[in-house]
Amino acid sequence: MNGFQQQIIDLIPRLRRFAVTLAGNLADADDLLQTTVEKALLRQDSYRAEFKLESWLFKIMQNHFIDLKRKDARRGGTVLIDERHDIVGEDGVQTQEGRNAAQKIMAVIANLPEQQRLVVACVLVDGQTYEEAAHMLDIPVGTIMSRLFRARKTLQSYAEELR
Q1: In the chain, what are the helix, strand and coil shares in percent, each to the nearest 5?
Q2: Which residues of 89-101 are buried (b: 16+ CB within 10 A; e: fewer)?
Q3: Is 50 left (phi over 0), alpha (psi -120 to 50) or beta?
Q4: Residue range 146-155: mean pLDDT, rounded
Q5: Is the model's pTM score more than 0.85?
Q6: pLDDT of 28-54, one tens digit each?
Q7: Cα 108 from Cα 105, distance rounded (Å)
Q8: CA distance 61 to 40
Q9: How far apart, in Å, are the Cα atoms of 68 and each of 77, 85, 131?
Q10: How many C-beta atoms surround the C-beta of residue 68 within 10 A?
């Protein structure tokens, strides 16, 4: 294994968090992560060292996600079995409440406009600075701040409804 491959492996936890935020569920997120890593390895020669590897990988993932959304729009939506049936073998009030809360949060994030969802994924989920997110998304820092402000307002109003 070379250094480039090891760097990608080291970034997998961050990439997965970003993928979950984009996709809205673990199954699609894992597919998105796998495709991103595969594309990065196949395009290793096109990576330029003057750029941060993580920004390059996040951009690959973002572009692939956008392509998938376009395909889904043409095909129509899908119904996930996981959302329609309980998982066999798990029970308990605490487990179910945690699962329900996580699904509700993911649903709220998934319903944000795509531009806000991307900023939430970068800043709130992945912990990137505004500057890092702006560089990765190729938009000004001020735009990051305004999109994040609007997304936080939506998330706060949802939290108030739960109380």
Answers
A1: 80, 0, 20
A2: eeeeeeeeeeeee
A3: alpha
A4: 92
A5: no
A6: 999 999 999 999 999 999 988 888 898
A7: 5
A8: 10
A9: 11, 25, 27
A10: 16
